[in-house]
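Chain entry —
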Amino acid sequence: MTLVQMQPRPAIASPVRRTVAEVMDAAGPQVCDDMSVEVALSVMAAARTGRLVVCDQDGRCTGLVTRIELTAVRDSSAYTDRVRLRDILGDHRSFTSPVTTMAEAEHAMRSRRLGALPVVDGQGSSALGVLALSL
């Protein structure tokens, strides 16, 4: 018979609770909400990005738009050159805080079917970055 010495298992550390600040991307280009769809698409092309953070006249973050959304608006039969970004933000006025846990942010994004969220400062005004879900 062989004697087997049992070693106590180390306690499993609780999973690290990462915050949004640890994984967010840079905010990227920020544009004013009175910009036209065509100009916003041009800015995206020049910046080689697929999304823009939208701000109001006071510089407060009001949402996020993507190239896919803007292209769909431009290609719709209701489109005119008078359509501004503020006109199409709709449900995209969602934000998250840099101290929100990733689990909370992912749950909120999946339940609202959002691919990305602006990360705003404590006052909810300045965009610090963008949190994007990985597929």
User: Anything to note?
Assistant: The chain is about 30% helix and 20% strand. The first strand starts at residue 25 and ends at 26. The two ends are 53 Å apart (CA to CA).
